[in-house]
Design goal:
One of its GO terms (biological process) is wound healing. Keywords: Actin-binding, Coiled coil, Phosphoprotein, Repeat. Pfam families: CH, SH3_10, Spectrin, Spectrin_3, Spectrin_4. One of its GO terms (cellular component) is hemidesmosome. This is Calponin-homology (CH) domain-containing protein. By secondary structure, the chain is mostly helical. Among the domains are: about 150 residues, Calponin-like domain (Actin-binding Protein, T-fimbrin, domain 1), CATH 1.10.418; about 110 residues, Orthogonal Bundle (Actin-binding Protein, T-fimbrin, domain 1); about 120 residues, Up-down Bundle (Methane Monooxygenase Hydroxylase, Chain G, domain 1); about 110 residues, Methane Monooxygenase Hydroxylase, Chain G, domain 1, CATH 1.20.58.60; about 120 residues, Methane Monooxygenase Hydroxylase, Chain G, domain 1, CATH 1.20.58.60; about 60 residues, SH3 type barrels (Roll), CATH 2.30.30; about 50 residues. Helix content is about 75%, strand content about 5%. It has 35 helices and 7 strands. The strands form 2 sheets. The chain has a 5-stranded antiparallel sheet with strand order 6-5-4-1-7, with no helix packed on it. The protein has a two-stranded antiparallel ribbon with strand order 2-3. Strand 2 and strand 3 form a beta hairpin. Helix 9 packs across helix 14 and helix 10 packs parallel to helix 12. The longest helix has about 60 residues. It is elongated, with a radius of gyration of 63 Å.
C-alpha cells in the first residue's frame, strides 16, 4: 500500500507505542494526521493566547501544562472581557480545580456552551479537551463577533468564508471554497493583502514564488504593517490536511483589519470598475424602488368615497408624471452604462454584476412593474368612474326625493283645498279634479318606484349613503300611501254618494248663440262671466307668450313679475266664486246656459291657475338653478382671475403661499366637484323634464362645463409654473448657498491654513484639516456639476415681463380654444408681443394669431442668467480648488521646514532613541515629500530653492548622525560582547582560582603515587587553563575594538588579566612545590634505602670476634662504614634543605 511507502509515516511510527504498531498502515496514517493537526492547533492556539496574555504581561510556553493551574486561563478571560475574576493563589490540586471551575462557570454565564469539558480535564492537561476549550473561546470572542450586525441566520464560519471569497474574487488561480486546501498554495493570503494594499505585494512576483515563500511574505507583511499576530507558519498550512480551526483563527484576524474589500479591484481597470460601482449603486436603487413600488401596485384596496378616490387618482397621476420619468431616465442611463461595460465584461470573461441587477433583469422587472401600474391605474379610473356614476345617481335620487316630497306637499294641499270645495263644485268637475289628483299620485308612484330601483342599485354597489337614501325613499312611499288614503277618504268617497245629472240639449246651436248673446248684453251676471272668461284667456295667453329670462337678473325680474301676476290670479278666484253664486238668479234654460258659461269659466280659470302655478314653479326651479350656476361661475371666474393675473416673473413671489394656495385649491375643487355636479345634474333634470327655459339652462351648463374645464387647465398651469418657479428659486438659493460656502472655505484657507510657523503636531492637524477640506471640496464639486446641469433646465421667468424684440418660441402647458384658434398641450407657439398684462399675442402651429392668456405658456429653458450663475460658480469653485492646492503646497513646504527644524534640534542621544526604523521612515518620508514638492512646484520659487538647500543640510545631518550612531551602536555591541566575555571569563577564572587555591592549601603527598596522581591532575588543570588563553586574547581584542572605552572597561580587563596572571603564577608555584616534593620523596626513598643498607651492614656486626685481627678487621669495616655514612651526610643535609623548601 502507498501508506507503507511513506517515509514520514514510517518515521512517525517508530516513535509510537506498540499498540499503534499493531494497527494497519491506513489507520496509522489517520492517527498521524490527527496528531499533526493537534500539534498545529496547539502551536496556533498558544500564539493566540499569548497575543492576548501579552496585555497582562504574561506568557505561556506549553498550552497543556501552563493552563492547568487556571491562572493563565482566568487572565485570558479577563483580557478578553475586561472583567475581573476571583482566583486561588495556592498551587495544590484543589486550588487549580477551583480556578478552572471559576473560568468554566464564567463562560457558562456568558451563554457559551461547553461540551463534556470538566475542570479535571484541564487540570490533568487533557490535550483534546484543552484544545476544545481554547477553540470555544476563540469561536466566541473573536470569530462570532464577525457576524454581529450582519445578515440574520448566517454562521460566523459561513460569513467568514463568504468574506474570503468576496475579497479574493477575480484573482487568477485563487478559488476559496473551504478553510483547508484552498489556502495551501498561499495565493489566497497574498490576494487578501493585495486587494486591500496593492502597494505592499507585487502580484506578478508572488505568482512565481513557492507556496511557503508566498505565505512567509504574507504573514510577515500582515504582522509588520497591521500587527496581525503570526499564528501560523508556512509549514503549518502547506500540508496534505491543513488544520481548519487554525486557519479560521488566523483568517478571522485578517478580517479584523480588512473587514470589507475595496470596491475597486487593483488587478483590473479602475475606470471600468468605477463605472461598475456606479452601475451597481444606481441599479440597486432602481431595483429596490421597483420592488417597493411593485408591491404598492399590487394593492387593490381602494377607498370607498369619491373624494378619497379622486385623491388616489391624483396621486397615481402624480406618480406617473413625477416619479416614473426620473426612474425611467435612470433605467436608460443604466442601459447605456451596461452597454458601455459589455466590452470590459468580455475582456475579463465574466459579468461582474449580481443577477438581479443585470440590465435584462432590470428591464423585466420594469416591464412587470409598468404592467402592474397600468393595470392599477386602469382599475383606479374604472373605480373612479363607478363612484362618479354612483355619486351622480345619488345626487339624482336626492334631487328626485326632494322634488317628489315637494310634489307630495302640493298634492296634499290640493286634496285639502278640493275637499273644502267639493260641495260647491259640479259633480263632473269634482270627478275630473279627483281623477287629476289620482293621475298625479300615479305619476308620483312611478317616480317612487324609480327611486326604489335606484336606491337598490346604490345599495348593491355598496354606496356609503345608500342606507340613508333608502330610509328617505321608504318614508316617501309611506307618505304616498297616506295621501292616497286621504284622497279616497275626503274626495273619492264623498263623490261616490253623489248622482251625476244627465243634460238633454235639444236647442240648436244657433238658438243657444242668440240666447247667449242676448243674455250677455242684457244680463250683468252673464256679462260678468263672459268678462271673467276673457280675462282668464288673455292672462293665459300672456303667460304662454312670456319669457323666462337668460341670466340671473332677467330670471329674477320675470319671477318677481309673475309672482305679482300669480297673486292676481289667486285673487281672481273670488270673482269666479261670485259667478258661481250668481246661479241662483237663473232658472230653466237660462240656468242651463249660465251653467255652461260658468263651467267654461271654471275650466279656463283652472287651466290658468295650473299654468300660473307651473310657470311659478318653473321660474323657481330656473332661478334656483341659475342662482347656483351663477355662484359656481362666479367662483370659477374668481379662481381664473387669480391665475391669469399672477405674475410669475416677480422676484419676490411667495412660493410657499402659492403652494399652500394650490393645495387648498385642489382640495376645494375636489369638494366643489360634488356641488358642481349637483348643479349640473339639476340642469340635466330640468332639460329632461322639458323645462320651458331649457336653452338658457343648457347655455349655463355649457358655460359651467367650459369654465370648469378651463379652471382645470389653469390648475395644471399653476402646477407647472409652481414647479418651474420652485426650481428657479431653489436653483438660485443653492447657487447663493454654494457661493457663500466657497467664500467661507476661502476665508478659512486664507486664515487658519495660512500659518507658516508651527509645530509638527499643529502641522499634522492642519494637514488633516486641509485633507478634510479637500474632501468637502470634492463632494461640493459634484454639487457644482449638478448645478451646472440643472442650469440647463431652469425656465427664464424674468423673460416673461421683458419686452419681446423678436419672435420667441414658447411652449404651451395646457389646451386652449378660442373660436377657430386652437392650441394643444406641449405644442410650440411663437410669441410676438407680451406687453399685455394678462394676454400675449401668439401664433399657433398653423400661423393663426390670437390673444391668449400668458399663463398658458412657458418660455422654454435655458435661462441665460442661470447659465451665467452656474458658470460663475464653476469659476469660483476652480479658484477655490486652485487656492487649496496653493495653500496645501505651502502647508506641505512649511511642514517639511518644521520637520527639518525638529531634526536640526536633535542631538545624538535623541537621534538614537528614535530607533533606526522610525529614523529611516522619517528621512524617507521627508525626502519623498520634498521631491514631490519640488516636482510639483515652480523651479523659480524661492521657497523651493530654500527647501533644496535645507534638504541637503538635513541629509548631511542624517548621514553624520547615522555614522555616529553606527559607531556608538558598534561600541555598545562591542561593550556588550566585552561584558559577556568578561563575565564568562571571570566565572571560569574564579573557578580556576578556587581550584588552585584549594590545591595549594591541601596537605602534601606522602608518597610518589599520590604525587604522580596530583601531577597528572594538575596537568589536566593547566590544559583546561591553557584553553582559556584564546578567550583572554579575544577579550583583549574586543577591548581594543571598543571606540568609547570607559575606566570600568579597563578596570574589568585588568582585573581579569591580574587574576589570569595570579592563577598562572600560583600554578607555577604549585608545580615547583610538586617538584620539590618529588625530590624530597625520592631523596627520602634513597636515604631510607641507604640507611637500610647501613642497618643491614651494622646488623652483620652482631657478634664481635675474639681475635684482635678479627677485631681490627671489624674495626676497619666499621671505619669504612662510618666513612660511607659520613659521605651520605651531604645527601641527608640536601634532603633536609629540600624538605624545608617544599
Amino acid at each position: 500500500m502507498e501508506f507503507d511507502k511513506d517515509p514520514s509515516l514510517q518515521e512517525w511510527t517508530r516513535e509510537q507505542p506498540l499498540s499503534v504498531l499493531a494497527l494497519d498502515s491506513a489507520d496509522r496514517a489517520v492517527l498521524r494526521i490527527a496528531d499533526e493537526r493537534d500539534a498545529i492547533q496547539k502551536k496556533t492556539f498558544t500564539k493566540w493566547v499569548n497575543k492576548h496574555l501579552k496585555k497582562a504581561n504574561q506568557q505561556i510556553r506549553d498550552l497543556f501544562e501552563d493552563l492547568r493551574s487556571g491562572h493563565n486561563l482566568i487572565s485570558l478571560l479577563e483580557v478578553l472581557t475586561g472583567e475581573q475574576l476571583p482566583r486561588e493563589r495556592g498551587v495544590m490540586r484543589f486550588h487549580m480545580l477551583h480556578n478552572v471551575d471559576t473560568a468554566l462557570h464564567f463562560l457558562h454565564c456568558k451563554k457559551i456552551r461547553l461540551v463534556n469539558i470538566r475542570s479535571e480535564d484541564i487540570v490533568d492537561g487533557n490535550p483534546k479537551l484543552t484544545l476544545g476549550l481554547i477553540w470555544t473561546i476563540i469561536l466566541h470572542f473573536q470569530i462570532s463577533d464577525i457576524v454581529v450586525g450582519q445578515e440574520p441566520n448566517i454562521s460566523a464560519k459561513d460569513y467568514l468564508l463568504r468574506w474570503a471569497k468576496r475579497t479574493t474574487n477575480k484573482y487568477p488561480g485563487v478559488r476559496v471554497t473551504d478553510f483547508t486546501s484552498s489556502w495551501r498554495d498561499g495565493l489566497a493570503f497574498s490576494a487578501i493583502i493585495h486587494r486591500n494594499r496593492p502597494d505592499l505585494v507585487d502580484w506578478r512576483n508572488i505568482k512565481v514564488q513557492h507556496a511557503r515563500e508566498r505565505m512567509e511574505t504574507a504573514f510577515y507583511i500582515a504582522e509588520r504593517e497591521y500587527g496581525v499576530t503570526r499564528l501560523l507558519d508556512p509549514e503549518d498550512v502547506d500540508t496534505h490536511e491543513p488544520d481548519e480551526k487554525s486557519l479560521i483563527t488566523y483568517i478571522s484576524s485578517l478580517h479584523e483589519v480588512f473587514p470589507e474589500p475595496p470596491s475597486i479591484h487593483p488587478l483590473y481597470d479602475q475606470a471600468a470598475q468605477q463605472r461598475i460601482q456606479e452601475y451597481r449603486e444606481l441599479a440597486s436603487s432602481v431595483h429596490m424602488w421597483i420592488r417597493e413600488k411593485y408591491s404598492l401596485m399590487q394593492d387593490r384596496s381602494f377607498p370607498p368615497t369619491l373624494i378619497e378616490m379622486k385623491k388616489l387618482a391624483s396621486e397615481s397621476s402624480r406618480f406617473r408624471t413625477d416619479e416614473i420619468p426620473p426612474r425611467q431616465r435612470d433605467k436608460q442611463y443604466l442601459n447605456q452604462l451596461f452597454r458601455d461595460l459589455e466590452k470590459y465584461f468580455k475582456s475579463v470573461g465574466e459579468v461582474d454584476i449580481e443577477p438581479e441587477l443585470h440590465i435584462d433583469s432590470i428591464e423585466k422587472t420594469w416591464s412587470r412593474f409598468m404592467t402592474a401600474y397600468q393595470e392599477r391605474d386602469r382599475q383606479i379610473l374604472e373605480e373612479l368612474k363607478r363612484l362618479e356614476r354612483l355619486q351622480r345617481l345619488a345626487e339624482k335620487v336626492h334631487r328626485e326625493i326632494k322634488q317628489t316630497d315637494s310634489n307630495l306637499d302640493t298634492i296634499e294641499r290640493r286634496i285639502e283645498d278640493e275637499a273644502r270645495r267639493i260641495e260647491r263644485l259640479h259633480p263632473l268637475d269634482a270627478k275630473k279634479i279627483a281623477d287629476q289628483i289620482e293621475s298625479d299620485l300615479a305619476v308620483t308612484e312611478q317616480n317612487i318606484q324609480s327611486l326604489i330601483t335606484d336606491v337598490h342599485t346604490l345599495l348593491n354597489s355598496r354606496y356609503l349613503q345608500g342606507p340613508e337614501l333608502d330610509k328617505r325613499v321608504k318614508k316617501l312611499h309611506e307618505r304616498w300611501v297616506q295621501l292616497r288614503r286621504l284622497l279616497h277618504h275626503k274626495i273619492v268617497g264623498p263623490l261616490a254618494n253623489l248622482s251625476f245629472p244627465v243634460e238633454e240639449r235639444t236647442v240648436t246651436k244657433h238658438i243657444r248663440t242668440v240666447q247667449e248673446t242676448r243674455n250677455v248684453d242684457t244680463n250683468p251676471h252673464f256679462r260678468a262671466v263672459q268678462e271673467a272668461i276673457e280675462w282668464c284667456k288673455n292672462k293665459l295667453k300672456q303667460f304662454q307668450e312670456a319669457d323666462y329670462g337668460t341670466d340671473l337678473p332677467s330670471v329674477q325680474a320675470e319671477r318677481e313679475l309673475h309672482q305679482r301676476e300669480h297673486k292676481h290670479v289667486d285673487q281672481f278666484h273670488s270673482k269666479v266664486d261670485t259667478c258661481v253664486k250668481a246661479r241662483q238668479y237663473f232658472s230653466s234654460e237660462e240656468l242651463t246656459l249660465y251653467n255652461q258659461h260658468l263651467s267654461q269659466l271654471q275650466k279656463v280659470y283652472a287651466e290658468l291657475s295650473t299654468y300660473s302655478n307651473n310657470r311659478l314653479s318653473d321660474l323657481d326651479s330656473l332661478l334656483d338653478f341659475i342662482q347656483s350656476a351663477t355662484n359656481e361661475l362666479h367662483w370659477l371666474n374668481e379662481k381664473e382671475e387669480i391665475e391669469v393675473t399672477r405674475d410669475w416673473s416677480d422676484k419676490n413671489i411667495n412660493l410657499q403661499a402659492i403652494e399652500k394656495y394650490y393645495e387648498n385649491l385642489m382640495s376645494d375643487l375636489e369638494k366643489r366637484e360634488i356641488q358642481f355636479g349637483a348643479v349640473q345634474d339639476r340642469g340635466e333634470a330640468l332639460v329632461l323634464q322639458n323645462h320651458p327655459a331649457s336653452k338658457a339652462i343648457e347655455a349655463h351648463m355649457a358655460a359651467m362645463q367650459a369654465q370648469w374645464a378651463w379652471l382645470l387647465q389653469l390648475t395644471h398651469c399653476l402646477e407647472e409654473h409652481l414647479r418651474h418657479a420652485q426650481n428657479y428659486q431653489t436653483f438660485y438659493q443653492d447657487i447663493e448657498e454654494t457661493e457663500q460656502w466657497l467664500k467661507e472655505k476661502d476665508e478659512v484657507m486664507n486664515t487658519e491654513f495660512s500659518q507658516s510657523d508651527f509645530s509638527l503636531d499643529v502641522g499634522e492637524r492642519l494637514l488633516q484639516g486641509m485633507q478634510a477640506l479637500r474632501d468637502e471640496l470634492n463632494n461640493f464639486g459634484d454639487r457644482v456639476q449638478e448645478l451646472i446641469v440643472r442650469s440647463q433646465d431652469i425656465v427664464p421667468l424674468k423673460q416673461r415681463r421683458q419686452p419681446v424684440t423678436r419672435p420667441l418660441s414658447i411652449t404651451t402647458i395646457c389646451n386652449y380654444k378660442q373660436n377657430n384658434f386652437v392650441i394643444e398641450k406641449n405644442k410650440e407657439c411663437t410669441l410676438t408681443d407680451n406687453s399685455g398684462r394678462i394676454k400675449w399675442r401668439v401664433h399657433n402651429e398653423k400661423g393663426i394669431e390670437a390673444q391668449v392668456p400668458g399663463v398658458c405658456f412657458v418660455i422654454p429653458p435655458p435661462d441665460k442668467e442661470a447659465i451665467e450663475a452656474a458658470e460663475r460658480l464653476r469659476r469660483q469653485y476652480d479658484r477655490s480648488i486652485a487656492l487649496w492646492q496653493k495653500k496645501q503646497l505651502r502647508m506641505r513646504q512649511n511642514m517639511i521646514f518644521a520637520t527639518i527644524k525638529v531634526v536640526k534640534g536633535w542631538d545624538l542621544p535623541q537621534f538614537i532613541a528614535i530607533g533606526a526604523e522610525q529614523r529611516n521612515a522619517i528621512r524617507r518620508a521627508l525626502n519623498e515629500d520634498a521631491d514631490k514638492l519640488m516636482a510639483e512646484g515652480d523651479p523659480s520659487d524661492p521657497q523651493l530653492r530654500r527647501l533644496r538647500r535645507e534638504m541637503e543640510e538635513v541629509n548631511r545631518l542624517f548621514d553624520e548622525f547615522e555614522k555616529r550612531a553606527r559607531a556608538e551602536e558598534e561600541s555598545k555591541n562591542q561593550t556588550r560582547i566585552f561584558n559577556n566575555q568578561i563575565s564568562s571569563l571571570q566565572q571560569s577564572l574564579d573557578e580556576a582560582e578556587r581550584i588552585i587555591n584549594q590545591r595549594v592549601l591541601s596537605p602534601l603527598p606522602r608518597d610518589i603515587d599520590t604525587l604522580q596522581h596530583l601531577v597528572l591532575e594538575h596537568k589536566e588543570y593547566e590544559s583546561r587553563l591553557q584553553n582559556l588563553e584564546p578567550e583572554i586574547e579575544q577579550v583583549k581584542d574586543t577591548f581594543r575594538s571598543i571606540t568609547l572605552k570607559t575606566p570600568q572597561h579597563k578596570k574589568d580587563l585588568e582585573k581579569v588579566l591580574n587574576k589570569w596572571n595570579y592563577i598562572w603564577n600560583t600554578s607555577n608555584l604549585y608545580i615547583e612545590r610538586l617538584k620539590c616534593c618529588e625530590i624530597v620523596l625520592n631523596g627520602v626513598d634513597d636515604a631510607t634505602q641507604v640507611i637500610s643498607e647501613f642497618e643491614n651492614k651494622l646488623a652483620l656486626f652482631d657478634e664481635l670476634p675474639s681475635t684482635e685481627k678479627a677485631l681490627e678487621a671489624v674495626h676497619d669495616d666499621l671505619l669504612k662504614l662510618q666513612s660511607a655514612i659520613s659521605q651520605q651526610q651531604i645527601v641527608m643535609d640536601q634532603l633536609n634543605d629540600d624538605f624545608d623548601n617544599t
